[in-house]
Write a structure and sequence with these properties.
The structure is a homodimer.
Chain A: H1 11-15, E1 17-22, E2 26-31, E3 38-43, H2 55-76, E4 80-85, E5 95-100, H3 122-137
Antiparallel strand pairs in A: 1-2, 2-3, 3-5, 4-5
Helix pairs in contact in A: 2-3
């Protein structure tokens, strides 16, 4: 099993994201680019590749990917989901789950490196986080207040 | 469950790949671009998104991704794996599993749209397919002969 005790969030991921809560394996983040509704799953394990996780963790990661992808699709009614574990720049294992629209800044290309990141409107971002959290955790709505400096 | 009977390979995927065999859920392909050792998993289901698969199929897909990724890493000794389900151009669900090197044509960018596809050397391709198949299926070596026109 990949080591859980050794895990801490890579600073490059911390700088570009907002923490919206934990699933059993992964921490869930919003990526700070208003061009696309963009979530990130970071397994709380000292891992670079999906195959650094053991089989139970891999199955749990897929379950969490599906749960978050479903929530994102429901909230955004997007045209396509993009799901990817690349890690060429930041080596800590992280999975991108991105809602794509035929009209977005990069379509049909992948999003990475295409358009300069856009700042979120705080009210829109709070609403988005609230809706996503409600659907991921199936819990009563407990929105995180986004004050522009993370939580 | 996503419909298995309705499945047939999308012609755009057929044109760009070489079929190297079936896992329980997915057909495995080599993508025809010698810039990168590049495999593709296509679940034999009428699906666009991972979340179109049921939970059992999703777990099976993760198991097959890990199996193929492990084989690819062992064969290539690559620096990084890139694993992605995008589907912005070809809507049939397919998962890219790509071996990346710090010296490859696109590093550290994602591969899509970066460098013109390169033709494989037939002998190198046959060796690669043989080694990958041996590690995915853990079977005796039964190489597919690549004659330049798929099998």
């Amino acid at each position: 099993m990949a080591d859980a005790a050794a895990w801490s969030l890579h600073p490059q991921l911390a700088r570009a994201t907002i923490d919206i809560g934990d699933l059993p394996l992964s921490r869930v983040f919003v990526f700070e680019d208003a061009n696309y509704p963009w979530l990130l799953l970071v397994p709380r394990r000292d891992a670079v590749e999906i195959i650094d996780l053991d089989e139970v963790e891999q199955a749990q990661l897929m379950s969490e990917i599906a749960r978050v992808a479903h929530a994102l699709k429901t909230v955004t009614r997007c045209d396509k989901l993009n799901i990817a574990a690349l890690g060429n720049v930041v080596p800590q294992l992280h999975v991108h789950i991105i809602a794509r629209r035929h009209t977005d800044a990069a379509w049909p290309k992948p999003v990475w490196g295409e358009a300069p990141a856009q700042t979120h409107d705080p009210a829109e971002l709070n609403l988005f986080i609230s809706e996503v959290r409600q659907r991921i955790w199936l819990a009563s709505d407990q929105p995180i207040t986004f004050d522009g400096a993370g939580r």
